[in-house]
Amino acid sequence: MTGTRTTRRRLVDRIRDSGLGLFFGALFVAALVAQSFAGWATFTDDQTSARLQPVSWLEYVTSSSFAADVAENWQSEYLQFVLFIGATVWLVQRGSTVSGELDQVGPQSDERQHVRGHALPGSPRWAAASGWRLWLASHSLGLVMGAIFVASWAAQAVTGHVAHDEQQLLDLEAPTGLSGYVASADFWNRTLQNWQSEFLAVGSMVVLSIYLRERGSAESKPVGAAHDDTGVEG
């Protein structure tokens, strides 16, 4: 019985320690499934209006139309993170919680970053390395986020092109090439409407965190912190 309680306690501790990731992972799955059913309903209505055969839910979620809708949102989200990661290396915002300290601009010293001879006992192994391994460890977050952005944007272009050409054929119009679609107003309208919302959201967080608080949140300063306190989280 004691062993069972210990195992259960360890499981609870692991869930608690990963609560933030699990929470947003669950929200992601729920929202994606809900999007698939809402999109399927809309797609079915369009098919019916055009006097075409409706498709099943499985056919819809494996279609270029659904893939394009998903990819265009993913690429804008990861673009937001790539730009934010890179910008916060060199740019600061006085009083913002998401800004680095005002006197710590740039890649910082080896000592502050705990690399090479300043690596700590618990540091990742490549933090104590040099050359390409240290460079890769130093920029791994931006590189992976950037790679996901490029991949999802390419997926948006390809699947959006297929969906666009399918609609062109239904409208008895000539299909376009991939390059023609990427240069089209439709592609950039779908892209830029996502980009502008991401930039607004990040900019709002940067500025509003100067003056507003959320007690206990890691994204907020302590309630009693001065507005000018920079890079301080509560």
What's the Cα radius of gyration?
A: 23 Å
**What kind of assembly state do the chains in view correspond to?**
single chain
| Range of helix content | 55-70%
Indicate the structural class.
Answer: mainly alpha
Overall mean pLDDT: 85
User: The biggest beta sheet, please?
Assistant: none
Tertiary shape: globular
Distance between the termini: 40 Å
Please explain how this structure is put together.
It is globular and about 65 Å long. It has a domain at 67-108 and 141-234. It contains 8 helices and no strands. The chain has helices spanning 2-17, 19-49, 57-61, 64-90, 110-113, 132-170, 178-182, 185-211. With 234 residues, it is mostly helical. Helix 4 runs antiparallel to helix 6 (132-170) and helix 4 crosses helix 8. The chain starts with a helix and ends in a 23-residue tail after the last helix.
Give a brief rundown of this model.
With 234 residues, the protein is mainly α. Helix content is 66%, strand content 0%.
Secondary structure blueprint with pairings:
Blueprint: H1 2-17, H2 19-49, H3 57-61, H4 64-90, H5 110-113, H6 132-170, H7 178-182, H8 185-211
Helix pairs in contact: 4-6, 4-8
